[in-house]
Design goal:
This protein is of the alpha/beta class. 39% of the residues lie in helices and 13% in strands. The relative contact order is 0.24.
């Protein structure tokens, strides 16, 4: 089955080659070092190894100010320049006037209309579904896209069966913070489960937002553990995909790559693409609003 696995990493750009401010240089990151031979930085933004490519993606899209998640993620998952549409960068949630665009243009809806099977692979705890039952809609672009397109959201049962992933990859917070009866799993197993979903679905999305939390100076006590878990997860994913799979790892804006500040950055967003027709993606994805068109062209 032809499939695309999109790992959305919130808040990771390509930054300076600086151990003091850039954690990828301070702690090392084997996904970069072992697969590409070096860590991407502002002096070397384009790196390749076979069918694997690292390259920068424009997150500013011609609009003054620091990129934000609401507009950035609308641009990614709807294929529009949301920043230009509302005249500013906005976040963390989408601006109210973007909701009709999200409802009409989100990638889940467009792919399903072309008979592609899609899944948002993140599992949500019961408190999230309680929040929805109260009629609240202060949601990320990804969650809102699914709700507006009748795409089912995964919960505890799917996570328990290994058919979804926790937002932190390894179930750690579900177990220790939310007190669910689940095993804490290795990041390799989480990556394997994501790859397995590619055997059932044409488009698989996994959203990882802890990278942005780290960039904002949150979760500092667990920084190294969270950072290493993400590295192991991505490394396994990029070394075990099948011949019919394209893996896309993309972000909405910079943040984590510059720990000298606690805000987003103007750095280009990090993009990695690997696998089937990855060279086409490398040539055609210039801005964060280009992801959707590439995916649609590949699958439809």
């Amino acid at each position: 089955m032809r499939n695309i696995i999109f790992v959305f990493l919130d808040g990771i750009g390509i930054g300076k080659k600086d151990k003091e401010s850039n954690p990828f240089f301070k702690y090392g990151f084997k996904t970069f070092e072992k697969l590409f031979g070096e860590i991407p930085n502002l002096e070397n933004q384009f790196i390749s190894n076979g069918d694997k490519y690292i390259f920068p993606t424009d997150a500013v899209l011609g609009v003054d100010g620091l990129p934000q998640s609401g507009t950035g993620q609308t641009s990614i998952f709807c294929g529009v320049n949301a920043q230009e549409i509302i005249g500013k960068h906005f976040g963390p949630f989408p601006y109210s006037t973007l909701s009709p665009i999200i409802e009409k243009e989100n990638i889940f809806k467009c792919l399903e209309e072309h008979n592609n099977k899609t899944i948002f692979a993140n599992a949500f705890p019961s408190i999230f579904f309680d929040y929805l039952k109260e009629g609240k809609r202060r949601l990320s672009v990804t969650s809102l896209s699914c709700l507006l397109s009748n795409i089912p959201l995964c919960g505890y049962e799917e996570l328990k069966r290994g058919e979804a992933l926790s937002a932190e990859i390894d179930n750690h917070r579900w177990v220790n913070k939310l007190k669910y009866d689940l095993p804490i799993i290795e990041p390799e197993l989480a990556a394997e489960r994501l790859l397995n979903l590619g055997n059932k679905y044409n488009y698989v999305l996994f959203e990882y937002f802890y990278s942005d939390h780290l960039g904002h100076g949150r979760l500092n006590d667990d920084f190294v553990s969270i950072f290493n878990t993400l590295d192991i997860f991505l490394f396994y994913l990029l070394t075990n995909y099948s011949d019919d799979t394209t893996v896309i790892i993309g972000s909405d804006h910079g943040n984590l790559e510059d720990m000298s500040i606690k805000t987003h950055t103007l750095n280009p967003a990090l993009t990695i693409i690997a696998g089937k027709n990855s060279s086409v993606g490398k040539e055609n994805i210039k801005g964060i609003n280009d992801f959707k068109n590439y995916i649609i062209n590949e699958l439809c």
